[in-house]
């Protein structure tokens, strides 16, 4: 039995997120179906996290255990031949038997893309949030680093079925930056982990900062433990990309 780590890129536009859902197309479901066909038996695929419906990935990480001795280069080719064109295996590598893409992740990086032009190019419409209205980009750039550090992000989290388990909503953000590239406003965040809708809610608050509705005091209040307010609005999924998942040197 081999434990294989996969790096995947996908266009999430026509999928109902990562996690398997009965009767609905999902990334995990597509990958499991292809691997099970290659293996000749049911294969369970674990991911580094659950991207929501419509969210994209430049480098999602998944892992599965298989007995098929197919060389990794051939496995990658076979999977890309069988997977939908919107999902591609970028890399396949053998790792230690107990490797788990979520439990062993050190940090993740997400990027949110906002198109600021009056007209959104039709070929970008599924991959950006179009916001052509007045916005003070400098305020967004200034406010983005306020999210850095270890905080209680309860105000930035959507309701989740895992809430009943009482898990902590404290997360560490290593880097939170925004910048402008021509007609695009880009927000990139790197952290120890993220709650449901957390990045989309942070981006929503930053847009509110750009509109002049919130500033440093309001953002600071949202990060206080026990904050009863909900941050928002939650920006659309189509502008969000999982950019990278990083691991320590002991995963091989």
Description of the structure:
The protein folds into two domains: about 1-105, 2-Layer Sandwich (Alpha-Beta Plaits), CATH 3.30.70.580; about 105-245, Alpha-Beta Plaits (2-Layer Sandwich), CATH 3.30.70.660. It is globular. By secondary structure, the chain is α+β, with helices and mostly antiparallel strands. It contains five helices and ten strands, in the order βαββαβββαβββααβ.
Distinctive features:
single chain, 252 residues, alpha+beta, Alpha-Beta Plaits, 2 domains, ten-stranded mixed beta sheet, 10 strands, globular
Task: Name the CATH superfamily classification of the largest domain.
Answer: Pseudouridine synthase I, catalytic domain, C-terminal subdomain
Give the total of beta strands: 10
**What is the helix fraction of residues, given as a range?**
10-25%
Average pLDDT over all residues: 94
Instruction: Compute the number of helices.
Output: 5
Rg estimate, integer Å = 19 Å
CATH structural fold name of the largest domain? Alpha-Beta Plaits
Low-confidence runs: none
In CATH, the architecture of the largest domain is 2-Layer Sandwich
**Elements, N to C (H/E):** EHEEHEEEHEEEHHE
Broad structural category:
alpha+beta
Report the end-to-end length measured between terminal Cα atoms. Answer: 15 Å
Strand content: 25-35%
Total domains: 2
General form? globular
Biggest sheet overview: 10 strands, mixed
CATH class categorisation of the largest domain: Alpha Beta
